[in-house]
Amino acid sequence: MNELTTRIVSAIAMIAVALGVTYVGGFLFAIFVAAVATAVYWEWSKITKNWGVHWMLLGFVYCLLPALALLYLRERGEGLELVLWVFIITWATDIGAYFAGRSIGGPKLAPKISPNKTIAGLIGGMVAAAVLGGLWAWASALPPMLYMLGAPMAAAAQGGDLFESWMKRRAGVKDSGTMLPGHGGVFDRLDGLLVVAALTALIYFGAGL
């Protein structure tokens, strides 16, 4: 099995598991979120093991808040649709950025941090998230404010991606781990989702929804 096939099969499996436990919700979803957050923190700890205790504490908060955010969002009245919106925003950002970056190319977004990322990729991810996120929010009767949040959330997701890339570059590692065949570590796959989940919960809580 070549690397591309491995990545595709792994991605399908991960998406299927994520959608399944999200649909079930409740205790199973809580256990899944806790396990994933623990895996991310484990990888964070390995990356920052020589950076001082404050980085360990920062990592604990950085992993805990998105986990609590996902649990909070899933317990809303429209929790299933809302968590799926978070997933769609994150996945659309990654896919849009990948295809726009490869097909258009052009100036680099942050060459010293992540040489492969381009400004075209950033814009492509924002457009994809805006369209797909807006359509899902409308079709699922989610609050109208979510219709317009796709693009800024995509930018935030890519900010999370760049932050993790900066951490790996500082630590001198290519991937955060090896748990996911063809994808590296759990942190590698969820760097954007962590930010989107936390911001969505903050906005929801702030709006009193």
Automatic annotation (TrEMBL):
Membrane-spanning residues: 12-41, 53-73, 79-99, 119-139, 186-207
Catalytic activity: a 1,2-diacyl-sn-glycero-3-phosphate + CTP + H(+) = a CDP-1,2-diacyl-sn-glycerol + diphosphate
Top-level taxon: Bacteria
Record EC number: 2.7.7.41
Tagged with keyword Lipid metabolism: yes
Pfam family for this entry, one: CTP_transf_1
GO molecular-function terms, A-Z: nucleotidyltransferase activity
Keywords of the record: Cell membrane, Lipid biosynthesis, Lipid metabolism, Membrane, Nucleotidyltransferase, Phospholipid biosynthesis, Phospholipid metabolism, Transferase, Transmembrane, Transmembrane helix
Pathway: Phospholipid metabolism; CDP-diacylglycerol biosynthesis; CDP-diacylglycerol from sn-glycerol 3-phosphate: step 3/3; Lipid metabolism
Protein's cellular compartments: Cell membrane
Membrane topology: Multi-pass membrane protein
First-tier enzyme category under EC: transferase
Annotated family: Belongs to the CDS family.
Protein name, entry field: Phosphatidate cytidylyltransferase
Species name: Sphingomicrobium clamense
